[in-house]
Specification:
This is Protein SERAC1. It comes from Callorhinus ursinus (Northern fur seal). The protein is of the alpha/beta class and 672 residues long. It is built from 29 helices and 11 strands.
Length: 672
């Protein structure tokens, strides 16, 4: 039995050895086989596999690198809005710090990252601008280099040395309405004087571009605004002023409000404007005394050296306090605007006016629905804007259109000159349909306009610059305390001529539109300009004149005033309107010959109804024969003297005939 088992184990071991030997032989054969060079096809595919492996690794690594850089860039461009909301009201701005070590700018890696960042930013900027995607908000808040967009790119562009680029940047800012609040405040804090004024004169600008005025200094102890206003007036020189202004300046300084009411009751005439003081046992309202001082300051501000004194003595801040205090008194606000507008004629004061916070006040006033308020602000901002304006608008010269910066080319000027007791705005309002107009009607320009040249004519003829002129007039010197007499038509014409030339009148084709005594001023101005070689452009560019009830041959008003002298003491202006006035006859004869020689186009309107002066006097101010210049059409209209220049509505004959004359007279100029 044991022998049998031994044989079995022997055979089994021998069998295993045979199998191991066979396997060993196969392995050796395979190793020997590898020493033989493979065929060429095997080498070709192996190289392809190696190239694919290398390229794939490179693409994968590059993709990961690009993904990392884009995510890192997006993270760096993302602003914590909660932090901004907490910090936006402060007077400083947070910006990302950048190393100033130039050694960090060396190296291939740094340059590669920089170029990559530039490319990605351009892609993001383009997509944000075209698609308005979410990158637009975050990307527009970063300040690095000139390849960045939105807020900081526009800021940089607005300070470019290229004027066209600056103007385009301001326009783009004003047309931006999708920014967050903090982005507008960044512009407000970081922009320069030119940009800020440009935004204020851009129609679509958001008011968030303008920071609130800085805090005003506290009033002195035991002092009032009225007292400080008087101290400011007292600090100004009493030189270079006419006798009438010196008189009232002295009066405003020497008399208290109580003594003014008690001793000087009645109608006070100041520069042609009446200041009513009611005799009573109470005090005169402080606003009345403040108005008295402001009228004097308006005249002082027409003198450059006095403007410097007003600024040096804190006048800008005091006037701003007074402006905010009397928001319910438009007349006080308008006189303050007149002072600031006069100061803005002096370019060396521009930075001070801006720093004092007046631009934000003016920008808000520009958007007012009140035409007078908006026009006063427009005049001041135009005087501040030396980027797009060469003209300067002196006191009494108001641009009704265009009041904002515009790309519309201006091809001609139309000037409106009011008459006796008129004004730059109220003379040219729509005819009152009711005795008392509600505020709702006043605000609705479709139903009623307080100045049809601005509302109607500007829309019908947008290529015109429309200017309205204001000057002081008075029917009577009754109870006047001023020791000097009124100014003559000749004096006023020279004064207005100087102001209009400063505003650039005469550089373009001109049409004059005048009412009553304003027509006499136009005639006198043109005759005076014809005698001065430097005024030749004004004569050559005058295309036509519209006269609304102008007393070319005199007015019954002067005769009536003389006959009832005990009721109405005629002013010098009224005296010059008498039919037997030699000056009036000479003016008519000279101008008629001059107008025929220059071939001026003329249109005359005349009233046919009498006018009520007060509640008892009824008078036909300008008869038909007096309104006949001798050339041009003479059109009678069934209205009185006050309403001859006030159309009832836009499609009324009075306005449509005026519009037709302007368009026909300027047809060639508007086409060019």
């Amino acid at each position: 039995m044991s022998s049998i088992l031994s044989a079995f184990h022997f055979c089994r071991a021998f069998s295993h050895q045979r199998m191991s030997l066979a396997a060993y032989c196969v392995l050796c054969w395979r190793r020997i086989g590898t020493l033989i060079p493979p065929p060429k096809t095997t080498t070709y595919w192996r190289d392809i596999r190696n190239i694919i492996k290398f390229t794939g690794s490179l693409i994968l690594g590059g993709s990961l690198f690009l993904t990392y850089e884009v995510l890192a860039l997006k993270k760096s461009l993302t602003l914590d809005t909660q932090v901004v909301e907490r910090e936006k009201m402060k007077s400083y701005i947070y910006v990302n710090t950048v190393s100033l070590d130039k050694r960090e700018n060396y190296g291939i890696t740094y340059q590669a990252r920089k170029e990559l960042h530039k490319a990605v930013r351009k892609v993001l900027a383009t997509s944000a601008k075209i698609l308005r995607d979410p990158f637009a908000d975050t990307f527009s808040t970063v300040d690095v280099e000139d390849h960045e967009c939105a807020t900081w790119l526009l800021l940089r562009k607005s300070q470019s040395g290229d004027r066209a680029a600056r103007l385009q940047a301001v326009q783009e800012m004003s047309e931006t309405h999708h920014w967050h609040d903090y982005q507008y405040r960044i512009i407000a804090q970081a922009c320069d004087l030119r940009t800020l004024i440009g935004l204020a004169r851009s129609k679509e600008s958001d008011l968030r571009f303008f920071l609130p005025p800085p805090p005003l200094p506290s009033l002195k102890e035991d002092s009032s605004i009225e007292e400080e206003l008087r101290q400011l007036l007292a600090s100004l020189p009493q030189t270079e002023l006419d006798a009438c202004i010196q008189y009232f300046t002295s009066l405003a300084l020497s008399e208290s409000s109580q003594s003014l009411a008690a001793q000087k009751g009645g109608l006070w005439c100041f520069g042609g404007n009446g200041l009513p003081y009611a005799e009573s046992f109470g005090e005169v309202p402080s606003a009345t005394v403040e108005m008295f001082c402001l009228e004097a300051l308006v005249k002082h501000s027409e003198i450059s050296t006095h403007c410097d004194k007003i600024e040096a003595n804190g006048g800008l801040q005091l006037l701003q306090r007074l402006y905010q205090l009397h928001k319910d008194c438009p007349k006080i606000q308008r006189n303050i605007m007149r002072i600031i507008g006069n100061m803005a004629l002096n370019e060396h004061l521009h930075s001070t006016i801006v720093r004092s916070g007046w631009v934000s006040i003016l920008a808000e006033a520009m958007k007012s629905h009140r035409i007078m308020e908006a026009s006063h602000a427009a005049r001041t901002l135009a005087n501040l804007d030396r980027e797009t304006m060469q003209e300067k608008y002196q006191d009494g010269v108001y641009v009704l259109h265009p009041q904002y910066r515009t790309s519309q080319p201006i091809k001609a000027d139309v000037l409106f000159i009011h008459g006796l007791m008129g004004a730059a705005f109220k003379t040219w309002r729509q005819q009152d349909s009711e005795q008392v107009l509600t505020e709702k009607i006043l605000e609705d320009e479709a139903r009623y306009t307080t100045c049809w040249p601005k509302t109607w004519l500007a829309r019908d003829c947008p290529a015109l610059r429309i200017i309205s002129v204001e000057y002081d007039t008075s029917l009577s010197d009754w109870r006047t305390r001023c020791p000097v007499e009124r100014k003559s038509i000749a004096f006023r014409s020279n004064e207005l001529l100087r102001k209009l030339r400063a505003a650039g009148v005469g550089d373009r084709p001109v049409i004059w539109v005048s009412h009553s005594m304003g027509g006499l001023l136009v005639k006198k101005m043109l005759l005076e300009a014809s005698k001065k070689p430097e005024m030749s452009t004004l004569i050559n560019n005058t295309r036509g004149i519209i006269f609304y009830s102008v007393p070319h041959h005199g007015s019954h008003l002067a005769e009536y005033s003389v006959n009832i002298r005990y009721l109405l003491f005629p002013s010098l202006e009224v005296k010059e309107l008498s039919k037997d006035s030699p000056a009036l006859k000479t003016l008519q004869d000279d101008f008629l010959e001059f107008a025929k020689d220059k071939n001026f186009q003329v249109l005359n309107f005349v009233e046919t109804l009498p006018t009520y002066i007060g509640s008892m006097i009824k008078l036909h101010v300008v008869p038909v024969e007096s309104a006949d210049l001798g050339i041009g059409d003479l059109i009678p209209v069934d209205v009185d003297h006050l309403n001859i220049c006030k159309p009832k509505k836009k499609d009324a004959f009075l306005y449509q005939r005026t519009l037709q004359f302007i368009c026909e007279t300027l047809a060639k100029d508007l086409e060019n």
